Predict the structure.
Amino acid sequence: MEKRSGALMNTVNELFSEDCVFVSSQSTKETVVKEVGTKLLQKNLVTNEFVEQVLEREKSYPTGIDLKVLQTGLPNVAVPHTEAVYVKTRMIVPIKLTAPMRFYNMIDPQQSMDVCFLFMILNNQADEQANVLAAIMDFITQTDAAEMKQFFALNDTAKIYAFLTEKFKILKS
Amino acid sequence: MIKILTACGAGVNSSHQIKDALEKEMSNRGYDVQCEAVMVKDVNDEMLSKYDIFAPIAQTDAAKNTNMPIVDCGPILYRIPAMAVPVYDAMEAAIKKLKK
């Protein structure tokens, strides 16, 4: 297949799995990453070191994304992930947090923020065609803001999954 | 050719997005640019010496021992022109100063 810069090779249905959507009542990033990471390990989607590596990376290279700068009233999100070697697939694991959780800003690591939703990225391919983060940002910034607010208010994994499979678009170059 | 090194924590998602964006936009602006994306923890003075500009996603002291131009490229990650254009402008200014 001809290489297209910025194009994802997965379909939307391959990027999300209905049994890998979570709603968590954990109060810290350590406990929620462990809670979800343990389930991903049981499904053989990540390695034994995944949880430890995600948390280690988050300390030095945080993944919080400040959406206040968009001025559309959206809550902040984070995109925890780690190096490709600790992951066995390419997919996004949505995690709704029932209570705000503190993360630090990816592009300004001294700044902390409250986050209400995680898009945990599993990406075992380090090339521009596998740009899962870009697809997430397009989803957030190009979906109607009112609909995105409704999405972030969802606490039902089936509804979260349904919204994503309907609205998440494959990148076009 | 202008050689740019970009870096992020895991070397998978953010830095590759910056690489792709910089190569495309700088080409549109008429510059021959080649980017490499690495993990910040792998950046050292010897690696930096092979590049003209360092373009991390966030401020880091990885290039503190060099005099090379540094352009923080984090806002490109939002994929919104209003946030990316100032970064592209700063990158273009850095390229012009190189006089290559």
About this structure: Strands of chain A lie at 22-24, 64-65, 76-78, 90-104, 112-123.
